[in-house]
Amino acid sequence: MPSNANNIDRFKQSFREEAREILVELESALLELNGNPEDLELVGRVFRSLHTLKGSGAMFGFDELAAFTHHLETAFDEVRNGRLKIDSELVDLTLAALDQIKAMLEEDSGNAAADSGACAEILAKVRQMTGTAESHPAGPVPEQASPADESGATCDWQIRFAPGPELMLKGTDPLLLLRELKQMGDLRIVASMAAVPPLGELEPERCYISWEMVLSTAAGRDAIRDVFIFVEDSCELSIESASSPAPSAAACTPDVTAKALEEQRALSGGRRIYDKPSNASSLRVPAAKLDQFVDLVGELVTVQARLSEIATRRDDLEITEVSEEIERLTSSLRENSMNIRMTPIRATFEKFRRLVHDLARDLDKDVELTIEGADTELDKTVIDRLSDPLMHLIRNSMDHGIEPGDVRAADGKRPTATIRLSARHSGASVLVEVSDDGGGIDVDAVRNRAIEKGLIAADAVLTEAEIFALLFEPGFSTAKQVTDISGRGVGMDVVRQSVESLRGTIDVASKRGQGTSVTLRLPLTLAIIDGLLVKIGNANFVMPLANTLECIELTREDVAKANGRHVAEVRGEILPYIRLREYFNIHSERPEIEQIMVVETEEGRYGFVVDQVLGDHQTVIKNLGRFYRHVKFVSGATILGNGTVALILDPHRLVKDALHANTRGARGHSVAVTGSRRPKGD
Amino acid sequence: MPCLRKELVLSVVQEESQELSVIRLGGSVGIASAAELKKLLLQALGSGKEVRVSLESATDLDVTAVQLLWAAGCEAKRPGARFTFIEAMPEEISIALGDAGFEKVSLSK
């Protein structure tokens, strides 16, 4: 039936999404394990991830994936049991296997299939490591009843199963699990009631009972564990091979078991220990639905602004009250919807551990990646589009920034180079930085290359920052050799385009011999922000509220006192300002008293002079489109309640442009307006 | 596949006399009615009467029901309290409990 097929597709898609997250977690754990091969917790993390991947994969019909993962799981089970050691070979092998698993995941969705030759090679090596014979090379996961023990002999397994307290509430009946276990062989089982509290204290839906069992079966440990696959994370489970002959039923009496349980409880301080399941429940929602939701909230904010406008115009108390109430609700709704979209940058950062690991191996360089601020949250859309630029920056850094080991040694540097990925909040922006302790940028080489390529004149006078900015020009590369990794000058151009499409900026700082740091300043969100609505002549503008510190008056006397310089005195301190009327070439009568918006920028505090501050404004950001993409100091536009358009200002770029104009001496004061800069909406 | 619970529906018939409280549990006795069963047992045991429970019409018993009945049996150890099971338990329930290791666990103390 079509609905069934749809459901299956939906489940498969849901598994794919979950599996992708598991693979990121796996990669990260494996790479950590490379540096800490003795860390059993990491081994456990890898094992559990593989186990979940296998179990869920089999359930959703990804049989090949499940069978393949089964062998890896076996290897890490061997590690858990101390029979196999973690070394770089096992880590690399598992990483290669994860690449194949990724391909298997996407096979169904019509993408490239896994490389069967590579899979077979990986499996052969894994089997060699674990000492297991070849079996089920591409078939489904071994059935539970199939013998894991190659001899097919019956073994006795001592099993202890203590369900987590929430098991029943999650919809699982432990009795059904026990019944499944019973089908695997001869099961002797004793329930322990020792943890059941008095009736008055008993939480009726909680599970207090645990079980001690002896199972005689030809099935192996994995097959037994598979019975508990969906509850393993929230229960105590131990499956031990009984070294002595299987105990007789008489030996496994309730008294004996109760005594053993009592001893165990005494040892653990009378408390049962569970893998703590996360308390935070979550819901997976398709990103498109979320985008639609935020779009609707944006529309609502615009309509609400219209209502506020009408209420103010009509001067009707009742309408004003309703309008204010709606404004409060809209504001809360907006804040909530924005928060839903905020995602920690961790997953994006963690992905690069693998890239650094692989590139370090390919380039024969010793490089470690350090990650800071991984919990910094950014809008999902921004995060989604950040992977590519970061990848190019890291590749570039690994290839050109980090020197070969012998060069580092000759310079007296630590043999292990460091690439640092960090994120932190700064006002309404997030700063994402990629830095390295490599050789730094050769300013002269960049300059000469730019002259060669005709990007600048031979006698051009450029600041260091301007020279660094040339690195992001299309096709620019100073690399002597084009490698697989970089050198074609494509990557950095992609970085610039991606960051600019996110309305972000790039800053490069570098010191010869000490390293380079590239900082991306990205907006927290691309949807709706809090803004301050201001007016110059008949034009409206919005300044992001997060950057705005205060508004102060600027009288004609203040202007006269400054002798024509664009500075004001604020509580004894000098504040440079930009007169937006001049900047945007707006010809209208200047009011007696103007307003200075004091704004925190990357370059320090600056003032922006406007005619009038109208008040705060929930600003739904609309793109200006391709035609205006070169208007750098405007980050978008918004529609006001009366239907007119207000441009959203980018204070950082405005100040940078002003400083740039000053440095270049383009004008006598800090701002310059040229035809190309003037926004059309004015 | 995960072992999902069945939908559980409990039917209770309570017969009260001056000295006796008889609780007849029918249908599936499980988590859906666990809170109700606990309340019922506490009330019956708190009344000071002899409590008799019949599982004759029960079709299914899950872990939560076993825990509650076992705890009620323990409660009846207090002086003056009496708690017993009457009539035979259906065979399939008896087998299921045995399979789950409750064979040696006496529900009535």
Describe the protein:
The complex is a heterodimer of chains A (682) and B (109). Chain A folds into 5 domains: 2-130, HPT domain (Four Helix Bundle (Hemerythrin (Met), subunit A), Up-down Bundle), CATH 1.20.120.160; 155-267, Alpha-Beta Plaits (2-Layer Sandwich), CATH 3.30.70; 288-343; 345-523, Histidine kinase-like ATPase, C-terminal domain (Heat Shock Protein 90); 528-664, OB fold (Dihydrolipoamide Acetyltransferase, E2P) (Beta Barrel), CATH 2.40.50.180. Helices cover 42% and strands 22% of the residues of chain A. A 5-stranded mixed β-sheet of chain A has the order 6-8-9-11-10. The two termini of chain A are 58 Å apart. Chain B is α/β, with parallel strands linked by helices. Chain B has one domain: STAS domain (Transcription Regulator spoIIAA), CATH 3.30.750.24. Chain B contains 3 helices and 4 strands, in the order E-E-H-E-H-E-H. Chain B has helices at 34-46, 63-75, 91-99, and strands at residues 10-16, 20-29, 50-61, 82-86. A 4-stranded mixed β-sheet of chain B has the order 1-2-3-4. In chain B, helix 1 (34-46) runs parallel beside helix 2. The longest helix of chain B has 13 residues, at 34-46. At the A-B interface, helix 6, strand 2 and strand 3 of A face helix 1 and helix 2 of B.
Features:
A: alpha+beta, Alpha-Beta Plaits, five-stranded mixed beta sheet, 22% strand, B: 109 residues, alpha/beta, Transcription Regulator spoIIAA, 3 helices, disordered N terminus
| Residue windows where pLDDT falls under 50 for at least 5 positions of chain B | 1-8
Please write the CATH class name of chain B. Alpha Beta
Mean pLDDT of chain B: 80
Number of domains of chain B: 1
**Might you state the CATH topology name of the largest domain in chain A?**
Heat Shock Protein 90
Q: Report the radius of gyration of chain B as a whole number of Å.
A: 14 Å
Tally of alpha and pi helices of chain B: 3
- Annotation field: number of helices of chain A: 20
User: What's the architecture of chain B in CATH terms?
Assistant: 2-Layer Sandwich
Could you give the count of β-strands of chain B? Answer: 4
Which chain pair shows the most residues in contact? A-B, 36 and 32 residues
- CATH C-level of the largest domain in chain A: Alpha Beta
